[in-house]
Amino acid sequence: MVYQTVMLKDGRTATLDWLKEDDLPQLVEALNSVIREGKYLFMNNEITDMEEERKWFERSRKSSVLYLVARVDSRIVGGASIHPMTEKRSHVAEFGIFIRKGYRNLGLGTALTKTFIEIAKKRGFEILQLSVYASNKRAFHVYKKCGYKKCGRLTRDVKFLNGTYTDRILMQLLLE
Ligand SMILES: CC(C)(COP(=O)(O)OP(=O)(O)OC[C@H]1O[C@@H](n2cnc3c(N)ncnc32)[C@H](O)[C@@H]1OP(=O)(O)O)[C@@H](O)C(=O)NCCC(=O)NCCS
Questions:
Q1: Ligand 1 site, CB within 6 A
Q2: 134 φ/ψ angles, rounded to the nearest 5 degrees
Q3: Domain ranges of the chain
Q4: How many CA atoms lie within 13 A of 64 on its CB side?
Q5: I need a labelling partner for 158 at 20 to 30 A (CA). Which of 39, 91, 131, 139 fits?
Q6: Cα separation of 126 and 92, whole Å?
Q7: Residue 66's beta-bridge partner residues?
């Protein structure tokens, strides 16, 4: 069942649905395309082990990770999640997101970011956190626009495969 529908800036419609195990091959294909770009995500290597991916899905389910996939014309084009922390950090959840090339700058990232703020509030979290590379101006813009505030900066935390560095910016959103 569709969780939410998003009207994109080019007139197309995206649907947001909770991630299911059957979605994993398509999700991995989309994620790998962003990993190959080499400049936005932590991973250097594409995901190839689907058995490991299924184990990740099972672990995520058990630790109450909430994951929405975005589809345009029935194709998975991105995803976003909040990952609950545990013990003395149970009031905190970490947000992550990716949209594949060709579907960016259409409003989808903003819609997913805002949707997860509402989901986090409903689930009773008090704080959302994330980190973003200083070089990723678009992602920083989207998070700031949605209410996240910069709360730290790790100098040269990220070294790209071409030998250049970028800082990692930490952001928080205190949910009222
Ligand atoms: C970052 C990301 C999630 C944003 O999603 P999106 O669907 O492209 O974003 P939207 O279309 O909702 O919004 C883009 C905004 O950034 C702005 N923008 C685009 N390029 C920009 C740049 N270089 N600098 C500043 N702002 C920029 C757009 O003008 C738009 O702003 P507006 O809504 O105020 O007009 C998506 O681009 C993405 O997944 N990128 C690759 C992976 C990634 O970076 N993941 C996040 C890792 S922390």
A1: 34, 40, 97-99, 104-110, 132, 136-139, 141-142, 145
A2: -60, -30
A3: 4-174
A4: 11
A5: 91
A6: 6
A7: 82
Single-letter code of the amino acid located at 95: F
Q: Give 122-158 pLDDT, tens digit per residue.
A: 999 999 999 999 999 999 999 999 999 999 999 999 9
Q: Which of 74, 84, 72, 115 is nearest to 97 (CA)?
A: 115
- pLDDT tens across 4-52, in order? 999 999 999 999 999 999 999 999 999 999 999 999 999 999 999 999 9
pLDDT at 133: 98
Atom of ligand 1 nearest to the CA of 139: 1
Question: Interior CA angle at 43 toward 167 and 146, to 5°?
Answer: 55
CATH 3.40.630.30 fits 4-174, yes or no: yes
Instruction: Out of 16, 104, 128, 146, give the residue to mutate to test ligand 1, the one with the largest number of ligand atoms within 8 Å of its CB.
Output: 104
Supply the pTM of this predicted model: 0.98
Q: Are 35 and 89 in contact (CB under 8 A)?
A: no
Taking only Cα atoms into account, the Rg of the chain, rounded to an integer number of angstroms, comes to 16
According to DSSP, residue 88 is labeled G
Helices 50-62 and 24-37, packing angle to 10 deg: 110
Q: For residue 70, name the pLDDT band (cuts at 50, 70, 90).
A: very high
Nearest of 138, 141, 160 to residue 150 by alpha carbon: 141
